Amino acid sequence: MGLFQCYHDLDGMDVIRAWYESQSPEIQAAFIAVTQTLNAQPKNQWSEKLYKPLEKRSASRCVGLTELLLDNKDPKVCARVLAYCGPREGTITMLFGFDKTADRRYGEPCATAQERKGEVERDWTRAKPIWLIDD
Questions:
Q1: pTM of the entire structure?
Q2: What is the number of structural domains in the chain?
Q3: I need a surface site. Which of 3, 75, 86, 108 has the fewest CB within 10 A?
Q4: Pairs from 79-86 (Cβ < 8 Å, separation ≥ 24)
Q5: pLDDT 10s digits, 77-134
Q6: Is residue 106 part of a domain?
Q7: Residue 133 lies in a domain
Q8: Is residue 48 part of a domain?
Q9: Residue 34: how many CB atoms within 10 A of its CB?
Q10: 111: domain range?
Q11: What's the mean pLDDT when you consider all of the chain?
């Protein structure tokens, strides 16, 4: 079982892959670099510049979620993928990708990610291994 999983909707579509394929080459490259870097390191060595929990405020819609930070030297490239640790121990399920430069507030992305997290918790088959990394 791989570390990274992707959320699939009721029709079986991998929403993370669909989001990835709609992104610029720069964001695609950042996504690949971050997922491969994290996949190759023990979790206790992960940099908060690449991955961090979103639990700073108890009233936040983001509590229980994490984010992959897809930034590079170009300030125009600032994307995020919201995820959570689960449903199985040792897996991270990616739930929602978005452009942080266009949507600096996390309200709607976190609400959608929480809905998808609930779906995965009820039906683990909705989280399938990422298509990019061969384990």
A1: 0.91
A2: 1
A3: 75
A4: 79/23, 79/27, 79/30, 79/31, 80/109, 81/16, 81/19, 81/31, 82/54, 82/109, 82/110, 82/113, 83/113, 84/113, 84/117, 86/117, 86/120, 86/121
A5: 789 999 999 999 999 999 999 988 776 778 889 999 999 999 999 999 999 999 875 5
A6: yes
A7: no
A8: yes
A9: 21
A10: 4-126
A11: 89
Angle at CA of residue 116, ends 101 and 104, nearest 5°: 15
Res 4: pLDDT: 95
Structure tokens at 18: 């669909």
**Residue 24 counted as domain residue:** yes
**Residues sharing a CB contact under 8 Å with residue 65, sequence separation 6 or more, in sequence order:** 53, 54, 82, 83, 84, 95, 110, 113, 114, 117
Q: Residue 71 and residue 50: Cα distance in Å, rounded? A: 8
How many C-beta atoms lie closer than 10 Å to residue 25's C-beta? 7
Nearest to 82 by CA among 57, 107, 46, 47: 107
